[in-house]
Amino acid sequence: MSGKPRLTYLNGRGRMEPVRWLLAAAGVEFEEVYLETKEQYDKLIKDGFLLFQQVPLVEIDGMKMVQTRAILSYIAGKYNLYGKDLKERALIDMYVEGIADLMQMILMFPFSPPDAKEKNLDSIKDRATNRYFPVFEKVLKQHGQDFLVGNKFSWADVQLMEAILAVEEKVPAVLSGFPQLQVFKTKMSNMPTIKKFLQPGSPRKPPPDAHYVETVLKVFKK
Protein backbone atom coordinates (compact mmCIF):
# COMPACT_ATOMS: atom_id res chain seq x y z
CA MET A 1 0.00 0.00 0.00
CA SER A 2 1.24 3.45 -0.91
CA GLY A 3 -0.49 5.05 2.07
CA LYS A 4 -2.75 7.01 -0.26
CA PRO A 5 -6.51 6.66 0.19
CA ARG A 6 -7.88 4.10 -2.27
CA LEU A 7 -11.28 4.83 -3.84
CA THR A 8 -13.39 2.05 -5.38
CA TYR A 9 -16.28 3.12 -7.59
CA LEU A 10 -17.17 3.48 -11.25
CA ASN A 11 -15.19 5.70 -13.60
CA GLY A 12 -17.65 8.56 -13.26
CA ARG A 13 -19.03 11.08 -10.80
CA GLY A 14 -21.91 9.47 -8.95
CA ARG A 15 -21.65 9.34 -5.17
CA MET A 16 -17.85 9.29 -5.21
CA GLU A 17 -17.38 12.71 -6.80
CA PRO A 18 -17.86 14.72 -3.56
CA VAL A 19 -15.21 12.47 -1.98
CA ARG A 20 -12.78 13.22 -4.83
CA TRP A 21 -13.55 16.92 -4.45
CA LEU A 22 -12.94 16.93 -0.71
CA LEU A 23 -9.67 14.98 -0.88
CA ALA A 24 -8.44 17.17 -3.73
CA ALA A 25 -9.40 20.36 -1.85
CA ALA A 26 -7.43 19.07 1.16
CA GLY A 27 -4.43 18.51 -1.12
CA VAL A 28 -4.53 14.72 -0.66
CA GLU A 29 -3.52 12.42 -3.51
CA PHE A 30 -5.52 9.21 -3.91
CA GLU A 31 -5.70 6.06 -5.98
CA GLU A 32 -8.79 4.79 -7.78
CA VAL A 33 -10.12 1.35 -8.66
CA TYR A 34 -12.91 1.34 -11.24
CA LEU A 35 -15.75 -1.16 -11.26
CA GLU A 36 -16.63 -2.21 -14.81
CA THR A 37 -18.45 -5.52 -14.28
CA LYS A 38 -21.07 -6.97 -11.98
CA GLU A 39 -18.56 -9.70 -11.10
CA GLN A 40 -16.14 -7.16 -9.58
CA TYR A 41 -18.97 -5.68 -7.51
CA ASP A 42 -20.21 -9.10 -6.37
CA LYS A 43 -16.67 -10.07 -5.34
CA LEU A 44 -16.39 -6.98 -3.09
CA ILE A 45 -19.62 -8.03 -1.38
CA LYS A 46 -18.53 -11.69 -1.10
CA ASP A 47 -15.15 -10.64 0.38
CA GLY A 48 -16.92 -8.59 3.05
CA PHE A 49 -15.57 -5.22 1.85
CA LEU A 50 -18.98 -3.54 1.62
CA LEU A 51 -20.75 -3.29 4.96
CA PHE A 52 -24.15 -2.59 3.39
CA GLN A 53 -23.41 -4.08 -0.04
CA GLN A 54 -22.99 -0.57 -1.49
CA VAL A 55 -20.22 1.58 -2.92
CA PRO A 56 -18.52 4.09 -2.61
CA LEU A 57 -15.74 2.27 -0.80
CA VAL A 58 -12.80 4.27 0.53
CA GLU A 59 -9.82 2.55 2.13
CA ILE A 60 -8.14 5.05 4.44
CA ASP A 61 -6.14 4.80 7.67
CA GLY A 62 -6.57 1.02 7.76
CA MET A 63 -10.37 1.26 7.46
CA LYS A 64 -12.69 0.13 4.68
CA MET A 65 -15.22 2.94 4.79
CA VAL A 66 -18.64 2.93 3.14
CA GLN A 67 -21.59 5.36 3.18
CA THR A 68 -20.78 8.63 1.47
CA ARG A 69 -21.73 10.87 4.39
CA ALA A 70 -19.54 8.92 6.85
CA ILE A 71 -16.60 9.00 4.44
CA LEU A 72 -16.94 12.74 3.86
CA SER A 73 -17.26 13.65 7.56
CA TYR A 74 -14.18 11.53 8.37
CA ILE A 75 -12.10 13.22 5.66
CA ALA A 76 -13.38 16.67 6.71
CA GLY A 77 -12.43 15.99 10.34
CA LYS A 78 -9.05 14.48 9.48
CA TYR A 79 -7.99 17.43 7.31
CA ASN A 80 -9.36 20.20 9.55
CA LEU A 81 -12.24 21.14 7.24
CA TYR A 82 -15.02 20.60 9.81
CA GLY A 83 -15.16 23.81 11.84
CA LYS A 84 -13.56 24.73 15.15
CA ASP A 85 -16.35 23.62 17.51
CA LEU A 86 -19.72 21.83 17.69
CA LYS A 87 -21.71 24.88 16.60
CA GLU A 88 -19.61 25.37 13.48
CA ARG A 89 -19.85 21.66 12.75
CA ALA A 90 -23.66 21.83 13.05
CA LEU A 91 -23.75 24.69 10.53
CA ILE A 92 -21.48 22.79 8.16
CA ASP A 93 -23.73 19.73 8.52
CA MET A 94 -26.85 21.76 7.72
CA TYR A 95 -25.30 23.36 4.66
CA VAL A 96 -23.85 20.09 3.42
CA GLU A 97 -27.19 18.27 3.82
CA GLY A 98 -29.00 21.01 1.88
CA ILE A 99 -26.46 20.86 -0.94
CA ALA A 100 -26.70 17.06 -0.96
CA ASP A 101 -30.47 17.32 -1.54
CA LEU A 102 -29.84 19.45 -4.63
CA MET A 103 -27.02 17.19 -5.82
CA GLN A 104 -29.28 14.13 -5.51
CA MET A 105 -31.46 15.58 -8.30
CA ILE A 106 -28.38 16.11 -10.47
CA LEU A 107 -27.11 12.62 -9.64
CA MET A 108 -30.34 11.02 -10.85
CA PHE A 109 -30.80 13.24 -13.92
CA PRO A 110 -28.81 11.06 -16.39
CA PHE A 111 -31.11 8.14 -15.52
CA SER A 112 -34.30 10.09 -16.37
CA PRO A 113 -36.47 8.60 -19.12
CA PRO A 114 -36.16 10.74 -22.29
CA ASP A 115 -39.71 12.10 -21.92
CA ALA A 116 -38.97 13.28 -18.35
CA LYS A 117 -35.62 14.98 -18.99
CA GLU A 118 -37.00 18.45 -19.70
CA LYS A 119 -39.29 18.36 -16.66
CA ASN A 120 -36.44 17.17 -14.42
CA LEU A 121 -34.13 19.87 -15.77
CA ASP A 122 -36.78 22.49 -14.96
CA SER A 123 -36.99 21.05 -11.42
CA ILE A 124 -33.22 21.35 -10.94
CA LYS A 125 -33.28 24.96 -12.18
CA ASP A 126 -36.26 25.81 -9.95
CA ARG A 127 -34.78 24.22 -6.80
CA ALA A 128 -31.35 25.79 -7.37
CA THR A 129 -32.64 29.31 -8.02
CA ASN A 130 -35.56 29.40 -5.58
CA ARG A 131 -34.65 27.10 -2.70
CA TYR A 132 -30.93 26.38 -2.36
CA PHE A 133 -28.79 29.13 -3.90
CA PRO A 134 -30.77 31.97 -2.21
CA VAL A 135 -29.82 30.43 1.16
CA PHE A 136 -26.09 30.55 0.41
CA GLU A 137 -26.33 34.00 -1.18
CA LYS A 138 -27.88 35.27 2.07
CA VAL A 139 -25.39 33.42 4.30
CA LEU A 140 -22.41 34.90 2.45
CA LYS A 141 -23.91 38.40 2.49
CA GLN A 142 -24.81 38.38 6.19
CA HIS A 143 -21.62 36.61 7.23
CA GLY A 144 -19.44 39.06 5.30
CA GLN A 145 -16.59 36.55 4.98
CA ASP A 146 -15.06 34.62 2.11
CA PHE A 147 -16.28 31.30 3.52
CA LEU A 148 -19.63 29.93 4.68
CA VAL A 149 -18.67 29.08 8.28
CA GLY A 150 -16.36 31.02 10.59
CA ASN A 151 -13.74 32.65 8.41
CA LYS A 152 -12.14 29.40 7.41
CA PHE A 153 -12.32 27.10 4.42
CA SER A 154 -14.50 24.06 5.20
CA TRP A 155 -16.23 21.02 3.77
CA ALA A 156 -19.35 23.17 3.18
CA ASP A 157 -17.42 25.47 0.82
CA VAL A 158 -16.14 22.49 -1.18
CA GLN A 159 -19.62 20.98 -1.53
CA LEU A 160 -21.13 24.33 -2.56
CA MET A 161 -18.45 24.86 -5.22
CA GLU A 162 -19.08 21.38 -6.62
CA ALA A 163 -22.85 22.05 -6.70
CA ILE A 164 -22.47 25.44 -8.41
CA LEU A 165 -20.40 23.95 -11.23
CA ALA A 166 -22.70 20.94 -11.58
CA VAL A 167 -25.81 23.14 -11.88
CA GLU A 168 -24.04 25.53 -14.28
CA GLU A 169 -23.37 22.62 -16.63
CA LYS A 170 -27.15 22.23 -16.97
CA VAL A 171 -28.24 25.87 -16.49
CA PRO A 172 -25.31 28.09 -17.56
CA ALA A 173 -26.82 31.41 -16.34
CA VAL A 174 -27.98 30.07 -12.97
CA LEU A 175 -25.79 32.48 -10.95
CA SER A 176 -26.95 35.60 -12.82
CA GLY A 177 -29.07 36.74 -9.86
CA PHE A 178 -26.56 35.76 -7.18
CA PRO A 179 -23.64 38.25 -6.99
CA GLN A 180 -22.25 36.83 -3.73
CA LEU A 181 -22.13 33.33 -5.21
CA GLN A 182 -20.39 34.67 -8.32
CA VAL A 183 -17.64 36.15 -6.11
CA PHE A 184 -17.50 32.94 -4.06
CA LYS A 185 -17.11 30.83 -7.20
CA THR A 186 -14.24 33.01 -8.46
CA LYS A 187 -12.41 32.88 -5.11
CA MET A 188 -12.87 29.12 -4.78
CA SER A 189 -11.70 28.54 -8.37
CA ASN A 190 -8.44 30.33 -7.53
CA MET A 191 -7.65 28.37 -4.38
CA PRO A 192 -4.52 26.38 -5.35
CA THR A 193 -5.85 22.89 -4.55
CA ILE A 194 -9.21 23.52 -6.23
CA LYS A 195 -7.60 25.26 -9.20
CA LYS A 196 -5.47 22.15 -9.70
CA PHE A 197 -8.54 19.88 -9.48
CA LEU A 198 -10.32 21.95 -12.14
CA GLN A 199 -7.46 21.53 -14.64
CA PRO A 200 -7.68 18.97 -17.46
CA GLY A 201 -6.10 15.65 -16.49
CA SER A 202 -7.10 15.88 -12.82
CA PRO A 203 -9.12 13.09 -11.11
CA ARG A 204 -12.30 15.16 -11.57
CA LYS A 205 -14.78 13.25 -13.70
CA PRO A 206 -16.67 14.64 -16.71
CA PRO A 207 -20.46 14.93 -16.76
CA PRO A 208 -22.08 11.49 -17.03
CA ASP A 209 -22.65 10.25 -20.57
CA ALA A 210 -24.54 7.31 -22.07
CA HIS A 211 -21.58 4.97 -21.52
CA TYR A 212 -21.47 5.82 -17.80
CA VAL A 213 -25.22 5.23 -17.43
CA GLU A 214 -24.88 1.90 -19.24
CA THR A 215 -21.98 0.83 -16.97
CA VAL A 216 -23.92 1.76 -13.80
CA LEU A 217 -26.91 -0.31 -14.92
CA LYS A 218 -24.64 -3.24 -15.85
CA VAL A 219 -22.60 -3.26 -12.61
CA PHE A 220 -25.54 -2.86 -10.24
CA LYS A 221 -28.17 -4.91 -12.07
CA LYS A 222 -30.16 -7.16 -9.77
Automatic annotation (TrEMBL):
<comment type="similarity">
    <text>Belongs to the GST superfamily. Alpha family.</text>
</comment>
<feature type="domain" description="GST C-terminal">
    <location>
        <begin position="85"/>
        <end position="209"/>
    </location>
</feature>
<dbReference type="Pfam" id="PF02798">
    <property type="entry name" value="GST_N"/>
</dbReference>
<dbReference type="GO" id="GO:0006749">
    <property type="term" value="P:glutathione metabolic process"/>
</dbReference>
<protein>
    <recommendedName>
        <fullName>glutathione transferase</fullName>
        <ecNumber>2.5.1.18</ecNumber>
    </recommendedName>
</protein>
<dbReference type="InterPro" id="IPR003080">
    <property type="entry name" value="GST_alpha"/>
</dbReference>
<dbReference type="GO" id="GO:0004364">
    <property type="term" value="F:glutathione transferase activity"/>
</dbReference>
<keyword id="KW-0808">Transferase</keyword>
<dbReference type="InterPro" id="IPR036282">
    <property type="entry name" value="Glutathione-S-Trfase_C_sf"/>
</dbReference>
<feature type="domain" description="GST N-terminal">
    <location>
        <begin position="3"/>
        <end position="83"/>
    </location>
</feature>
<dbReference type="InterPro" id="IPR004046">
    <property type="entry name" value="GST_C"/>
</dbReference>
<dbReference type="Pfam" id="PF14497">
    <property type="entry name" value="GST_C_3"/>
</dbReference>
<dbReference type="InterPro" id="IPR040079">
    <property type="entry name" value="Glutathione_S-Trfase"/>
</dbReference>
<dbReference type="InterPro" id="IPR050213">
    <property type="entry name" value="GST_superfamily"/>
</dbReference>
<dbReference type="InterPro" id="IPR010987">
    <property type="entry name" value="Glutathione-S-Trfase_C-like"/>
</dbReference>
<dbReference type="InterPro" id="IPR036249">
    <property type="entry name" value="Thioredoxin-like_sf"/>
</dbReference>
<dbReference type="InterPro" id="IPR004045">
    <property type="entry name" value="Glutathione_S-Trfase_N"/>
</dbReference>
